Amino acid sequence: MKYTFKTFLLLFLAFPLFAQKVEVSPLSINSGDDDFGATFSNNGRVMYFTSEREADNDARQKIFMSSGMGRPEELSSMLNGGRNNGAVTLTPDGQFMIFAAFNRAENIGRTDLYSAEKVNGEWKNIKNLGPNVNSSEWDSQPTLSSDGTTLYFASDRTGGQGGTDIYVSRREGTGWSRATNVGATINSTFDEMTPTIGPDNSTFYFSSNRPAVGGFDIYSSRFLKGSFSRPVAFDEPINSDADEYFYTALPNSTTAYFSSNRSGGSGALDLYTAVPNPVLPAPVRIISGIVRDAQTSRTLGSTIYVTDLRTGKRVAELHSDDITGEYFVTLTSGRKYSITSSKSGYLFYSEQFEVPEESRGNEVKYDINLSPISQGRTRLLVFFDFDKSDLKEESQSELERIADFLKTNSAIKVEIGGHTDDQGAADYNDKLSSDRANSVKKYLVDNGIPTNRITTKGYGKRQPLVQGTDEAARAQNRRVEMVIK
Amino acid sequence: MKKLLSLILLTACCALPLKAQEEDVLRPRGGTPGSTAAQPESMRSAKNKMVISYGVEAGLNYNMFSQDVERSAPAANSPEDVLKEGSGISPFSSVFIDIPLTSTIGVQIKGIFDSKSWSNTQTGGLDVFDPNGQFIENAKVEATYKTSALFYGLAALLRYNFTPDLFATVGPTFHFLNGNVEREDNVKIIEQQDPTSAIIINYALIPGQYSEISRTTTEPSMIAPPVEPTAQTGKYLSSRIGVEAGLGYIFPLSSTMQLIPQVRYNFAVTALAEESQSKEVWQPLTTGSPDITFKNSKVNSLQFSLALMFNL
Question: pLDDT tens, A146-193?
C-alpha cells in the first residue's frame, strides 16, 4: 500500500516534467581535458569531480573540489597518490569518501577502491577497501547510498555477465561484505558502469553500451523490495550518439549532473546539467546543523548516528566537520528517527524526530550542543507506554549507547532522573517517574554496569524543562535525564 | 611481393605500441571509449573501440571467370567458346586481426582459406561421322565444364569507418594455389539428323566414337581441355594477386563480441594461368582447325560473409 502511494506520488510529482523539454547545459568549470564524475556533499553545495586538467608526470587523473561552482581545487597529493585517481563518492556529510586509484602503492588489483576520512579539514586515513571489495582486476566508480551503508561499483572481474558489471557490497562493522554482482536485471553481456544511487537509496542510474541511443547511454532503475526494476534508457538530449556517464541526482532538486563527450563541449569529457531531471528520486528530508560545545559554543567534529525507530536499524553514520561542526544527513520521508551525536570527552546527545511522508525539499536545521562529561546532563531517548514504566522496544539503541558510554567512561557515576508532565497527582507522578528511572537503571545493571555507579530519582512534575500546558510543552517535559555526578 | 608483405606487417606491428593506452578510473585497460582527447564520432561507440580485435569469418564466393580465346582464323559456333567464361558459388573462410591505427582507420590482416569453383554450359556445332569415318553432318552439341580449385590467401586491408557501425575495407589480396585444379568436361550431342553418327575425336588421348564424352582431370596445368595431344599447356600460376574492396556493418552481441555481415568484391589483377596454345578440332571439315590461344584467365569474386569479431 505504501509503495502504491509512493508510486502515485512520484508519478504525480514527475508528471509536469514529462511535458517539459529537458535542457542540457555544460558547466562553466569544464576544461579542454576530461572532466567527469560529479558528486556532491553538503546538500549540493560542494562538488567533487575527476579531471585531467592538471595532469603531470606523477598523476594524470586527479580529484578536484569546487564549492558553489567556484574555481576547482586539486585535492592533496596524498589523496591523488595513484597514477589515476577519481570517480569519487561521498557520504552526504562530506566527511567520508570512497575513490578509485590506478597504480597506487597499496593496490591489490589494477585499479582499486579506497576510503578516506576528513580529519581537521584534511583527507586522511586512506585505506584500501580490501579483498572483499577489490579484486585483482579493475574496480572503480564507487557510489555510496546516502546512509553510507551500501556501496555499488563497477568491475571487470571474471564471473560477471560480461564486460564490466556493477557489484554491491554492504557495510559490516568497520569493513565491507564480499562484493556480489547485482544481477542480470542491471548487468548484461555489454559494459555496465558508472552506477549512482539517488538520495532516496532507491533510484539507480548507470551507463551501458548496450544498443540504445548511441555509445554509452544512461539508464535508470528503481531498487524496491530487494530487487531492481527493468532499466530504461533516457531519451535525447540526455543521451546522445556520444557517451554519457555518471548521472547524479541532487536531493529534492530537479537538477541532475552527468558527463559526456558529445560535441559542443569544452573538449573530451565534460560535465553537464540536465534540467528537469526526467527520473526524479523520491523526496528526502535533509537534516543539517552544527555541533557545538554546550558551554563554549566551539564547533565540534563528532560522530552522529541516525536510527530508524520503527526498525531499530541504524540508517546513517556520519560525522560533523572537525572545523565547521557542520553535518548533513539525508533521510527517507514517512519515518520516525533518532539522531545521536557523540564525541570523546562529551556526554552523548540524542533526539527523536519524524520526517512526514509529504515532506519535500526542506532542509531542516537542527543544531546539537554537546555537554562536556565533567558537568554533563543529557536527555535520554527512552520510551514508555502511557502510565507505564516498562521500557519500549525502540529504547533499545539508546540504552545500548548509555551502557557503552558508562563502560567507556568507567570512572564516572550518573544519576538517572525521571520527569513527568504537569498532569496527574504529584505523588503518583513521583512514583511513576521513579519507576521509569529504575527501569533504565535495571537495564544498565543487567548489562554489566555496577549498581553503585547509578543512582535514580523520580522528580515527578517538579522540574519541568519548559513551562506550559500545551502538548508540545508536556512532550518535552516527559523525559528521563542522565546527569553526571 | 615479400617486400610488400613485410612492409604491411611491419606497419601493423609498429602501430601496436601506439594503442597501448593506460588504464584509468573510467576506462578498464584503457579500452573504454570516451578517451582523453575529443574523439571523432566514429570512435565513441563501444562497437568501435580503440582496441585490437580478432575474428573468424565464413561466407560464399560468387565467382566470375573469364579468359580471352583468340583464334588464328574465325571458328563460328565452336563448343570451345564455353571456356570464355564461367560462374559459380563456393565457400571460403578466414581468420583475421583488426588493428586500429586512428579513430577511424585500421588495418585488417587476414589468413584466407578460399575454395573457388566455376562452370559454364554452351551449345555449339560439331562435325560428326558415321561408323566408317564418313562425315555426316555438323550436329548440335552442348559443352559443359566445371573447374574447382583451392587457395590459401593473405589479405592486408585498410579499414575506414564511415560511422561507428559502417565501415569499408580495401587492399591487396594474395592467393596461393593449394594442390591441383580439378576440371570436369562434358560434350554431348543434343541434336543430329542421323542417330548413328558419332563424335570421333582423339579426346583426352582416348580415340573412339561417342555420343557423349566426359572426363574429369586433376592436374596442375591447362585451363583449356587438351583436345589435341600436341597442344601447348599453360600451367596454373602458383599465386595470384587481387584487389579487394568491401563494406561491413557491425552488430554488437556483447561488449567484446560483434557480428559483422560483409560484402566484398575481389578483383583479380594477375592471371590464373599462363597463356596456352591449342587447336580448334571440333569442326575440322566445316570450319577448319585454326590455332587457339587462351590468355588473361581471371577469376573475380563477389563475396558475402558473416564474421564474429572479439576484442582483445
Answer: 888 899 999 999 998 888 999 999 998 889 999 999 999 999 988 999
Q: Mutate one of B22, B26, B45, B259 to test the A interface: name it (highest A CB count within 10 A).
A: B26
In contact, A337 and A310? CB cutoff 8 Å? no
Dihedral angle at the C-alpha atoms of A69, A73, A79, A80, nearest 10 degrees? 110
- Distance, in Å, from the CA atom of B290 to the CA atom of B283, rounded to the nearest integer, reads 10
Task: Report the candidate in B234, B249, B229 with the shortest Cα–Cα distance to residue B307.
Answer: B249
Angstrom distance (rounded) from CA A272 to CA A218: 13
B186 CA to centre of own chain:
23
Q: Quick one: A365 exposed, middle or buried, by C-beta within 10 A (0-12, 13-18, 19+)?
A: exposed
Q: At what angle do helices A396-408 and A426-446 cross, to 10 degrees?
A: 60
Nearest Cβ partner for B33 among A111, A188, A215: A215
Query: SS3 for A403?
Result: helix
Question: Contact B36/A33, CB-based, under 8 Å?
Answer: yes
* Inter-chain CB proximity A52 and B36 less than 8 Å: yes
The stretch A97-112 carries a mean pLDDT of 93
Is the Cβ of A61 closer than 8 Å to some Cβ of chain B?
yes
Beta bridge partners of B213: B187
**Do A27 and A259 meet the contact criterion of CB atoms below 8 Å apart?**
no
Give the closest residue to A97 by CA, choosing from A148, A55, A173: A148
Mean pLDDT calculated for residue range A309-328: 86
Query: Is A100 within 8 Å of A86 (Cβ atoms)?
Result: yes
Buried b (16+ CB within 10 A) or exposed e, A183-209: eeebbbbbbbbbbbbbbbbbbbbbbbb
3-state helix/strand/coil string of B187-234:
EEEEECCCCCCEEECCECCECCEECEEEEEEEECECCCCCCCCCCECC
Q: What is the mean pLDDT of chain A?
A: 88
Cell numbers for B221, please give them. 596445368
What are the strands of the beta sheet with A270-275, ordered from one edge?
A23-26, A270-275, A256-260, A244-249
CB–CB of B248/B222 below 8 Å? Answer: no
Q: State the number of CA atoms in the 13 A half-sphere of A282 facing the CB.
A: 25
- pTM score, whole prediction: 0.61
